[in-house]
Amino acid sequence: MRGAEVEALARAGEVAGKYYPAGSTTNAAEGPRSFDEVEEALNAMEARKLVL
User: Fold this and answer.
1) pTM for this entry
2) Does residue 52 belong to any structural domain of this protein?
3) At what angle do helices 39-47 and 3-11 cross, to 10 degrees?
4) Total of domains in the chain
5) With 0-12 CB in 10 A as exposed, 13-18 as middle and 19+ as buried, what is 6?
6) DSSP-assigned beta bridge partners for residue 3
7) Cα separation of 37 and 49, whole Å?
């Protein structure tokens, strides 16, 4: 997910998001494997004061 997608979700009224690294839970095999893959989205969430 990119920052622009987070911005759109925040404008639509979303208040929180989930983060499941690859292999951390059932069906998370395709999750991010490094912080670099989620940094942009997390920064956008922080800027919009969304809960992680």
Assistant:
1) 0.77
2) no
3) 30
4) 1
5) buried
6) none
7) 20
How many Cα atoms sit within 13 Å of 9 on the Cβ side?
19
Assess contact for 50 and 42: CB atoms under 8 A: no
Helix (H, G, I), strand (E, B) or coil at 16: strand
What are the pLDDT tens digits along the chain (52 aa)? Answer: 788 989 999 999 999 988 888 888 888 888 888 889 889 989 999 999 999 8
Tokens 């009224």, residue located: 13
DSSP codes joined into one string, 29-47: TTS-SSGGGTHHHHHHHHH
Q: Is 14 exposed, middle or buried (0-12, 13-18, 19+ CB in 10 A)?
A: middle
Domain that holds residue 39: 3-47
Query: Which letter does DSSP use for residue 35 in this model?
Result: G
